[in-house]
Amino acid sequence: MNDVRPDEHGSATLLIVTVVALLTMVAVGMAIVGVYADAVHRARAGADLVALSAAVGQNRGAAPCPLAEEAARLNEVRLIDCELSGGPVEFAVSVTVEVDVGARVAGLPRAVRAEAHAGRLERSPP
Fold it and tell me: What is the pLDDT of residues 65-93, one digit of tens each?
């Protein structure tokens, strides 16, 4: 004998399809968050390395921004801005870099930016 009522026929299928669709949406959302987190990490690390390279160059008497451009290329980031403040002894190099996000999602940015600063400042005794 069949104990299933006619109005409940197929309800388990609908429930399973709904659960699978929700789990898929959660998984896709988590993947997008992961892609953006990776891009932010790469941008921050790249900005730090670019700023440090430029500051080392300035400390050795070289022009910092061309060195920043080369460091950006080697670290696979785009140099957006490079500024030198101060003089030959006390200085700071500020850079802004950009990294493309691997995923293209409507309504979300296609690239992330990061800033970093490096330099040499003499401190006076207290």
Answer: 999 999 999 999 999 999 999 887 899 99
